[in-house]
Design a protein that fits this description.
CATH superfamily of the largest domain: Hypothetical protein, domain 2
CATH topology of the largest domain: Endonuclease III, domain 1
Structural class: mainly alpha
Shape: elongated
CATH architecture of the largest domain: Orthogonal Bundle
CATH class of the largest domain: Mainly Alpha
Largest sheet: none
Length: about 210
Protein backbone atom coordinates (compact mmCIF):
# COMPACT_ATOMS: atom_id res chain seq x y z
CA UNK A 1 0.00 0.00 0.00
CA UNK A 2 1.57 3.28 -1.11
CA UNK A 3 1.22 6.52 0.78
CA UNK A 4 -1.43 7.62 -1.74
CA UNK A 5 -3.24 4.30 -1.28
CA UNK A 6 -3.29 4.90 2.47
CA UNK A 7 -4.67 8.39 1.98
CA UNK A 8 -7.38 7.17 -0.41
CA UNK A 9 -8.34 4.39 1.99
CA UNK A 10 -8.50 6.72 4.99
CA UNK A 11 -10.58 9.26 3.09
CA UNK A 12 -13.14 6.62 2.17
CA UNK A 13 -13.33 5.22 5.71
CA UNK A 14 -13.54 8.65 7.39
CA UNK A 15 -16.35 9.62 5.02
CA UNK A 16 -18.17 6.49 6.16
CA UNK A 17 -17.55 7.18 9.85
CA UNK A 18 -18.23 10.95 9.80
CA UNK A 19 -20.31 11.81 6.74
CA UNK A 20 -21.35 15.26 7.99
CA UNK A 21 -18.95 16.51 10.68
CA UNK A 22 -19.91 19.74 12.41
CA UNK A 23 -17.53 22.43 13.60
CA UNK A 24 -17.07 21.58 17.31
CA UNK A 25 -16.85 25.23 18.38
CA UNK A 26 -20.26 26.82 18.90
CA UNK A 27 -20.59 29.99 16.80
CA UNK A 28 -23.13 31.90 14.76
CA UNK A 29 -21.05 33.81 12.22
CA UNK A 30 -17.50 34.45 11.03
CA UNK A 31 -16.71 36.80 13.91
CA UNK A 32 -17.84 34.48 16.69
CA UNK A 33 -16.01 31.60 14.99
CA UNK A 34 -12.83 33.69 14.79
CA UNK A 35 -13.00 34.54 18.48
CA UNK A 36 -13.81 30.95 19.47
CA UNK A 37 -10.88 29.56 17.47
CA UNK A 38 -8.56 32.15 19.00
CA UNK A 39 -9.70 31.06 22.46
CA UNK A 40 -9.15 27.38 21.61
CA UNK A 41 -5.36 27.76 21.49
CA UNK A 42 -3.99 25.47 24.22
CA UNK A 43 -7.55 24.95 25.45
CA UNK A 44 -10.21 22.32 24.82
CA UNK A 45 -13.22 23.01 22.63
CA UNK A 46 -15.43 21.94 25.53
CA UNK A 47 -13.99 24.69 27.72
CA UNK A 48 -14.29 27.27 24.95
CA UNK A 49 -17.94 26.36 24.44
CA UNK A 50 -18.53 26.87 28.17
CA UNK A 51 -17.01 30.35 28.03
CA UNK A 52 -18.24 31.86 24.77
CA UNK A 53 -21.96 32.16 25.62
CA UNK A 54 -21.12 34.65 28.38
CA UNK A 55 -18.56 36.41 26.19
CA UNK A 56 -20.95 36.82 23.27
CA UNK A 57 -23.73 37.93 25.60
CA UNK A 58 -21.34 40.68 26.66
CA UNK A 59 -20.53 41.53 23.03
CA UNK A 60 -21.30 39.43 19.98
CA UNK A 61 -19.86 41.62 17.25
CA UNK A 62 -16.68 43.66 16.78
CA UNK A 63 -18.44 47.01 17.13
CA UNK A 64 -19.64 46.13 20.63
CA UNK A 65 -16.52 44.16 21.63
CA UNK A 66 -14.14 47.05 20.93
CA UNK A 67 -16.03 49.10 23.51
CA UNK A 68 -15.69 46.49 26.25
CA UNK A 69 -12.80 46.98 28.67
CA UNK A 70 -10.04 44.41 28.26
CA UNK A 71 -10.32 43.54 31.95
CA UNK A 72 -14.00 42.71 31.46
CA UNK A 73 -13.15 40.43 28.52
CA UNK A 74 -10.41 38.83 30.62
CA UNK A 75 -12.82 38.13 33.46
CA UNK A 76 -14.85 35.95 31.07
CA UNK A 77 -12.11 34.24 29.03
CA UNK A 78 -9.63 33.56 31.84
CA UNK A 79 -10.69 29.86 32.16
CA UNK A 80 -9.41 29.27 28.61
CA UNK A 81 -5.81 29.92 29.66
CA UNK A 82 -3.46 32.62 28.38
CA UNK A 83 -6.23 34.98 29.44
CA UNK A 84 -4.46 38.35 29.33
CA UNK A 85 -3.03 37.68 25.88
CA UNK A 86 -6.30 36.39 24.46
CA UNK A 87 -8.40 39.20 25.98
CA UNK A 88 -6.07 41.83 24.55
CA UNK A 89 -6.11 40.15 21.13
CA UNK A 90 -9.92 39.97 21.05
CA UNK A 91 -10.16 43.65 21.92
CA UNK A 92 -7.52 44.71 19.42
CA UNK A 93 -8.72 42.60 16.50
CA UNK A 94 -12.28 43.82 17.04
CA UNK A 95 -11.10 47.42 16.72
CA UNK A 96 -9.11 46.57 13.58
CA UNK A 97 -12.11 44.84 12.02
CA UNK A 98 -14.25 47.92 12.61
CA UNK A 99 -11.69 50.49 11.54
CA UNK A 100 -10.05 48.56 8.73
CA UNK A 101 -12.61 46.09 7.41
CA UNK A 102 -15.99 47.75 7.85
CA UNK A 103 -16.80 45.60 10.86
CA UNK A 104 -16.57 42.39 8.84
CA UNK A 105 -14.19 39.45 9.10
CA UNK A 106 -12.15 39.47 5.89
CA UNK A 107 -12.25 36.35 3.70
CA UNK A 108 -8.53 36.63 3.06
CA UNK A 109 -5.66 34.65 4.55
CA UNK A 110 -3.19 37.53 4.69
CA UNK A 111 -5.69 39.92 6.26
CA UNK A 112 -6.71 37.36 8.86
CA UNK A 113 -3.13 36.45 9.76
CA UNK A 114 -2.38 40.15 10.25
CA UNK A 115 -4.91 40.32 13.09
CA UNK A 116 -3.63 40.09 16.69
CA UNK A 117 -3.67 36.54 18.03
CA UNK A 118 -4.52 35.01 14.65
CA UNK A 119 -2.02 32.57 13.17
CA UNK A 120 -2.17 30.42 10.07
CA UNK A 121 -4.14 27.62 11.71
CA UNK A 122 -6.81 29.99 13.06
CA UNK A 123 -7.04 31.76 9.71
CA UNK A 124 -7.38 28.40 7.96
CA UNK A 125 -10.28 27.34 10.18
CA UNK A 126 -12.11 30.61 9.54
CA UNK A 127 -11.50 30.48 5.79
CA UNK A 128 -12.65 26.86 5.62
CA UNK A 129 -15.63 26.90 7.94
CA UNK A 130 -16.92 30.46 7.67
CA UNK A 131 -16.24 31.11 4.00
CA UNK A 132 -15.99 27.66 2.43
CA UNK A 133 -12.52 28.28 1.02
CA UNK A 134 -10.52 25.02 0.79
CA UNK A 135 -7.97 24.93 3.61
CA UNK A 136 -6.39 22.26 5.77
CA UNK A 137 -5.95 23.53 9.34
CA UNK A 138 -3.47 21.30 11.15
CA UNK A 139 -3.96 20.98 14.89
CA UNK A 140 -2.21 18.58 17.28
CA UNK A 141 -4.61 15.71 16.50
CA UNK A 142 -4.12 16.04 12.74
CA UNK A 143 -0.35 16.45 13.05
CA UNK A 144 -0.11 13.37 15.27
CA UNK A 145 -2.34 11.16 13.14
CA UNK A 146 -0.67 12.20 9.90
CA UNK A 147 2.56 10.80 11.31
CA UNK A 148 0.91 7.74 12.85
CA UNK A 149 -0.78 6.93 9.54
CA UNK A 150 2.47 7.53 7.61
CA UNK A 151 1.01 10.40 5.61
CA UNK A 152 3.76 12.81 6.64
CA UNK A 153 7.17 12.76 8.28
CA UNK A 154 5.79 15.17 10.87
CA UNK A 155 8.87 17.39 11.05
CA UNK A 156 6.59 20.41 11.57
CA UNK A 157 2.98 21.43 11.05
CA UNK A 158 3.82 23.34 7.87
CA UNK A 159 5.21 20.19 6.25
CA UNK A 160 2.26 18.14 7.49
CA UNK A 161 -0.15 20.62 5.92
CA UNK A 162 1.71 20.48 2.59
CA UNK A 163 1.77 16.68 2.63
CA UNK A 164 -1.94 16.36 3.40
CA UNK A 165 -2.89 18.86 0.72
CA UNK A 166 -0.84 16.87 -1.77
CA UNK A 167 -2.45 13.54 -0.83
CA UNK A 168 -6.11 14.51 -0.54
CA UNK A 169 -8.47 16.12 -3.08
CA UNK A 170 -8.90 19.86 -2.57
CA UNK A 171 -12.66 19.51 -2.30
CA UNK A 172 -12.25 17.16 0.69
CA UNK A 173 -10.01 19.37 2.84
CA UNK A 174 -12.62 21.34 4.80
CA UNK A 175 -14.55 18.24 5.79
CA UNK A 176 -11.53 15.98 6.23
CA UNK A 177 -9.74 18.12 8.79
CA UNK A 178 -12.85 17.88 11.00
CA UNK A 179 -13.16 14.13 10.38
CA UNK A 180 -9.57 13.52 11.48
CA UNK A 181 -10.04 15.66 14.60
CA UNK A 182 -13.18 13.75 15.59
CA UNK A 183 -11.57 10.38 14.94
CA UNK A 184 -8.43 11.29 16.86
CA UNK A 185 -10.38 12.45 19.87
CA UNK A 186 -12.76 9.50 19.89
CA UNK A 187 -10.58 6.55 18.94
CA UNK A 188 -6.94 7.39 18.29
CA UNK A 189 -5.72 9.65 21.07
CA UNK A 190 -2.05 9.97 21.99
CA UNK A 191 -2.48 7.70 24.99
CA UNK A 192 -5.44 5.63 23.84
CA UNK A 193 -3.77 4.17 20.77
CA UNK A 194 -0.18 3.28 19.96
CA UNK A 195 -0.76 2.93 16.24
CA UNK A 196 -2.05 -0.65 16.51
CA UNK A 197 -5.20 -0.54 18.63
CA UNK A 198 -7.94 1.57 17.05
CA UNK A 199 -10.08 0.56 14.09
CA UNK A 200 -8.31 2.48 11.34
CA UNK A 201 -4.82 1.72 12.64
CA UNK A 202 -5.65 -1.99 12.68
CA UNK A 203 -7.08 -1.79 9.19
CA UNK A 204 -3.97 -0.05 7.89
CA UNK A 205 -1.74 -2.68 9.51
CA UNK A 206 -3.72 -5.41 7.77
CA UNK A 207 -2.87 -3.69 4.47
CA UNK A 208 0.85 -2.97 5.08
CA UNK A 209 2.76 -0.61 2.83
Amino acid sequence: MTQQDRADYLLRRLNELYPSPLVPLVHRDAYTLLVAVLLSAQCTDVRVNQVTPALFALAGNPQDMMRVAVDDILAVVRPCGLGPRKAAAISQLSKILVEGHGGEVPADFAALEALPGVGHKTASVVMAQAFGVPAFPVDTHIHRLAVRWKLSSGKNVEMTERDLKRLFPRESWNRLHLQIIYYGREFCSARGCDGTRCLLCRELISHPS
